[in-house]
């Protein structure tokens, strides 16, 4: 069985990405000023998920995977974002 993002969640995310509301940033979910987002940052905001750390870190992975409807992978020591 494949896990899937709900259609409602996908529609909200795509609508937000296509809007002018979210300025784009890279390599961080939300920039330090809080006025620009990467696509995954927009995903979390549109699904009312808290961003624990604005950087792309393993702390944020569970929320991202949950919204996408995927099981969160185990993080191996020494892998990117493992601390």
**What is the terminal-to-terminal distance?**
32 Å
Proportion of residues in β-strands: under 5%
Average per-residue pLDDT, rounded, comes to: 80
Shape field: flat
Instruction: List the total number of helices.
Output: 3
- The side-by-side strand order for the widest beta sheet comes to 1-2
Tell me how many strands there are: 2
Structural class: mainly alpha
Instruction: Extract low-pLDDT stretches.
Output: none
Helix coverage percent: 25-40%
Sheet with the most strands? Answer: 2 strands, parallel
Rg, rounded, reads: 13 Å
Element pattern in H and E: HEEHH
Can you characterise this structure?
Helix content is 34%, strand content 5%. By secondary structure, it is mostly helical. It has a domain at 21-68. It has a two-stranded parallel sheet with strand order 1-2. The termini are far apart. The model has no long low-confidence stretch (mean pLDDT 80).
SSE layout:
Elements: H1 7-18, E1 23-24, E2 36-37, H2 39-46, H3 61-68
Parallel strand pairs: 1-2
Helix pairs in contact: 1-2
Task: Please supply descriptive tags for the structure shown above.
two-stranded parallel ribbon; 83 residues; mainly alpha
Short description:
By secondary structure, the protein is mainly α.
């Amino acid at each position: 069985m494949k896990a899937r993002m709900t259609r409602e969640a996908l529609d909200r995310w795509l609508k937000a990405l296509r809007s002018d509301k979210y300025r784009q940033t890279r390599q961080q979910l939300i920039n330090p000023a809080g006025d620009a987002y990467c696509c995954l940052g927009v995903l979390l905001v549109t699904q009312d998920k808290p961003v624990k750390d604005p950087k792309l870190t393993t702390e944020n992975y569970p929320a991202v995977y949950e919204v996408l409807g995927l099981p969160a992978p185990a993080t191996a020591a020494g892998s990117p974002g493992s601390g």
